[in-house]
Design a protein that fits this description.
195 residues, alpha/beta, Rossmann fold, five-stranded parallel β-sheet, two-stranded antiparallel sheet, 8 helices, globular
Length: 195
């Protein structure tokens, strides 16, 4: 993602490629009280009870976006799935839950779109927080794979990738690349907050 203006969450026309993300829908800005809430949802003391408030904010924001409605409606004949950005098993063990998975699970109920865990984290990465754009891209490169037993679910499907915070977009770009190289049709991001 180039940080240039785009319309309605669509990937900037100059950045579109065969294996890139088709666009990203965000709920709120990552600042002020929203930043504090997300921090408490994601880090100690791990207030996972914030999920209802945060999912409601995200849901209400995306269902009002014309481009989201178009993306969802234009692909009516295709299988639609929600896929959360996975954590590495070691980070999942220390945190106890994956905040992106919680968001995807709760959104699945509201959007009536199946959630599935087709992506897996194949390598341990550093936290992206505080890394420069180039370092983020290098850090996340090769971090994802598709679970062999679930690969048929993504072939030709419309995938909504769910994550908590969008900064440079390197995580979503890497995940979309892996999904499209494994047969996904369109890949859109749904992110709680944009930095």
């Amino acid at each position: 993602m180039c940080d240039r203006a785009s319309v309605g969450g669509m990937t900037h026309p100059g950045c579109i490629g065969k294996y890139t993300i088709d666009g990203v829908f965000t709920g709120i800005e990552y600042k002020g009280i929203a930043k504090k809430l997300i921090y408490n949802f994601k880090y100690k003391p791990y207030l996972s009870d914030l999920k209802n408030l945060l999912v409601d904010l995200l849901f209400e924001a995306i269902i009002q976006k014309e481009e989201f409605i178009k993306a969802n409606d234009n692909e009516s004949g295709k299988l639609k799935i929600l896929v959360s950005i996975p954590l590495h098993s070691s980070r999942l063990k220390s945190r106890g839950y994956n905040q992106a998975e919680i968001l995807a699970r709760e959104l699945s109920k509201k959007l009536k779109i199946k959630k599935t865990d087709v992506l897996e984290r194949t390598k341990i990465t550093l936290s992206q927080v505080g890394l420069k754009r180039e370092d983020r891209i290098k850090n996340i490169s090769g971090a994802f794979g598709v679970r062999k037993e679930k690969k048929e679910l993504i072939e030709g499907s419309l995938v909504f990738l769910v994550d908590d915070v969008l900064t440079t977009g390197s995580t979503l770009l890497e995940a979309a690349n892996v999904l499209k190289r494994n047969g996904a049709g369109k890949v859109w991001g749904i992110v709680l907050a944009r930095d």
